[in-house]
Amino acid sequence: MIEALIAFSLLAAQDRSDFWVVTHADAREATAINVGFAFVPEGQDFVLATAYTVHRNGTAASRWTTPAYTLEFLAFRCVDRTYRLRRSQTWSGVADPVGPHEPDGPFTSVWLDPKRAAQADAVCQPRSNHTEGFRSYFDFMRAYGLVDRKE
Known about the structure:
- By secondary structure, the chain is α+β, with helices and mostly antiparallel strands.
- It has 3 helices and 8 strands.
- A hairpin with a 2-residue loop joins strand 5 and strand 6.
- The longest helix is centred in the last third of the chain and has 11 residues.
- The radius of gyration is 15 Å and the shape is globular.
- The N and C termini lie far apart (44 Å).
């Protein structure tokens, strides 16, 4: 149910509160997390957020031939700096979408994964601390070369 609500927020018209923060970028992939639509479900002790990763050509996630995209639904507990991957889907031009999901799996420390630590920082800190971000994930995809150029 919660994943459906987050997915709907991605498909709906971009809202003023929509804000994607880049948490990782290198020559092979770039990741942004949506802090604008992050929320705490009623009665819960974690923040739900959506992360989007662009995998460029030549990576395992892209099946080595085409760009690929991963959408993740994450739960972060800011108090103890832990996270849980609730769902992950990777799309590639040469294969069906794949991805692990364990909505009720254990929370894991972000200290074990620098990419997750950066995502937790973006979700758990006030928006005013963010220095680089995008109003929509379409802007993020364009800025980080989702369309590979032939040079």
